[in-house]
Write a structure and sequence with these properties.
The chain is of the alpha+beta class. It is built from two helices and six strands, in the order ββαβββαβ. The strands form two sheets. The chain has a three-stranded antiparallel sheet. The chain has a three-stranded mixed sheet with strand order 4-3-6. The relative contact order is 0.23.
């Protein structure tokens, strides 16, 4: 289980490593371009939290496994949500990729 640490006195948000690796790539790409955005996180109990990320935000990604194979289709879907007016939503990883059979 990985962690996203948000803020100067960090709020710790637990996400599975694979999801966090994809969220990290999208977040860093947007912040590198000085693009602020909201990150919406759904909890298991049905509640939702939203955090605002911008270039001044202190954010850290802690992954328990060093490298993950990146699913480009999932990354593109996450980027699409991050570019929307509602902000990035962590959506489930697609079970198939274009031209592939189900996993």
């Amino acid at each position: 289980m990985g962690q996203l640490l948000y803020g100067a006195t960090p709020t710790v948000i637990d996400l599975d490593d694979r999801t966090l690796a994809h969220v990290e790539l999208v977040t860093l790409a947007k912040l590198r371009r000085n693009e602020s955005f909201a990150l919406n996180l759904d909890a298991a109990d049905g509640s939702r939290s939203t955090i605002w990320l911008n270039a001044a935000t202190e954010v850290q990604f802690r992954l328990t496994v060093g490298r993950h194979e990146i699913n480009r289709e999932w990354l593109d879907l996450l980027i699409d949500t991050a570019n929307s007016s509602g902000g990035m939503r962590v959506i489930p990883e697609p079970t198939t990729t274009k031209g592939d059979s189900p996993k």
